[in-house]
Amino acid sequence: MLADDHSLLLEAFRKLLEGKCHVVGAVSDGRALLREAPALGPDVIVIDIGMPMLNGLEAARQLREKLPNTRLIFLTMNEDPDVAVEAMRCGASAYLLKSSAASELFRAIQDVLKGGSYITPRIARQMDDALARQQQHRKAGAEALTTRQREVLQLLAEGKSMKEAADCLAVTPRTIAFHKYRAMEELGVRSSAELIRFAVKNRIIVQ
Question: Over the range 85-116, which residues count as b (16 or more CB within 10 Å of their CB) and which as e?
Answer without folding.
Answer: bbbbebbbbbbbbeebeeebbeebbebbeeee
